[in-house]
Amino acid sequence: MGCCDVPGLMTVETALDNIMTQVSPLTTITTVALTDAMGMVLAEDILSPINVPPFANSAMDGYALRAADLEHSDTLTMIGKSFAGIPFTGMCEAGQCVRIMTGAEIPVGADVVIMQEETQVDADNIQFSVKPKANDNIRPIGDDVHCGETVLVKGTRLTAREMPLLASLGIASFVVYRRPKVAFFSTGDELRPVGEALAAGQIYDSNRYGMKALLEKFGCDVLDLGIIADCPEKLRQAFVTASTEADVVVTSGGVSVGEADYTKDILEQEGEIGFWKIAMKPGKPFAFGTINNAWFCGLPGNPVSAMLTLYQLVQPMLAKLAGHSQYQPPVRLQAQATSMFKKRPGRTDFQRGIYSINSAGQCEVTTTGNQGSGAFSSMHHANCFVVLEQDRGRVEAGEFVTIELFNHTMY
């Protein structure tokens, strides 16, 4: 048995594969207005109904003219002006030019634009210091997008990069998938809401705030059921409510294998749940399955463990559920460690790190310090995970490691 072959532990890759093979995208679709579509996932391809730009226009401020005219003379007569939204309506004929602004329609007859810096102006007589080629500084019809072209494919999640594109096509509404609805809560008699005084043995419920923030960034509609005490009746009712009102139920705490609490008992009675021990650190205890008609993800109770498992295991699951076929996992790079990272073989370790680019343009990473699963300040200081392989041991400064950059959901 190798050093990483720990009995009873499931690899991170196997756990994620088990989740992803079971989950299918939601099929409910709805039509939304462009103004309400940010973060939604397209349920159909988007084909452009127009050319962009819809007319040939100038790429700069200058003069529109016929390029051939400058073969015989360097001075032409200005006959009018073309502004963006107020085009010149006549024809540009031999020996003539039209003053034109950036984005304005090219006058009929003109085939080139010369920038104003390459001219000398004497009333309506414009002298040109260059001899351009036809079509210089002209944006042709359909230069960006052609009518009928597929501009966005089904399964694309709309971000600030896609919204202006759709607006430029004049598309006011389209079909998207319904957002996944996620109900979540924390369990434990020791948890207290923020703002209340703590009694002996109590701590503040921090996990719910991180869960809500990430779930909303994942593009979900969320239902916060608060803190549920270790009471069988209250827990059972919380699970019933969550599983009947949401597509996914996410909890933190109460899923450790061998732990004697009501949460596990109720889950086993009400659903089909697998309680896994995953070879990841932090975050070994994790539960996945179904309860009524909802998917269930049970996160560990420690704050870093809860956020890490939500980020690594639940995020891609929710992307698939949302129909986001273009989802990409967080970017991983190689970096040189500038500090030591403690580790024992046996589990894939997701340590919190701070990466930077040194003066030589090389990627470096250092530890945030305390890597305990309850030390959540490490997440605040970090900008990446240092992903140390399951069979790897202690890392010395100077060694190369894999880092995983935080994606947009962490910012």
TrEMBL record:
The UniProt catalytic activity note for this protein reads:
adenylyl-molybdopterin + molybdate = Mo-molybdopterin + AMP + H(+)
Task: Mention any one GO cellular component term assigned to this protein in its UniProt record.
Answer: cytosol
- Which Pfam families does the UniProt record give? MoCF_biosynth, MoeA_C, MoeA_N
Copy the pathway line from the protein's UniProt record: Cofactor biosynthesis; molybdopterin biosynthesis
**EC number(s) on record?**
2.10.1.1
Q: Supply the enzyme class, top level.
A: transferase
Record keywords, A-Z: Magnesium, Metal-binding, Molybdenum, Molybdenum cofactor biosynthesis, Transferase
Q: Which cofactor does it need?
A: Mg(2+)
User: What processes in GO biological process is this protein linked to?
Assistant: Mo-molybdopterin cofactor biosynthetic process
Q: Where is the MoaB/Mog domain?
A: 183-320
Name one molecular function that GO assigns to this entry: metal ion binding
Q: InterPro entries attached here?
A: MoaB/Mog-like_dom_sf, MoaB/Mog_dom, MoCF_biosynth_CS, MoeA-like, MoeA_C_domain_IV, MoeA_C_domain_IV_sf, MoeA_linker/N, MoeA_linker/N_sf
Role summary: Catalyzes the insertion of molybdate into adenylated molybdopterin with the concomitant release of AMP.
Please state which protein family the record places this protein in: Belongs to the MoeA family.
Q: What is this protein called?
A: Molybdopterin molybdenumtransferase
Q: Which organism is it from?
A: Photobacterium phosphoreum
The lineage is: Bacteria, Pseudomonadati, Pseudomonadota, Gammaproteobacteria, Vibrionales
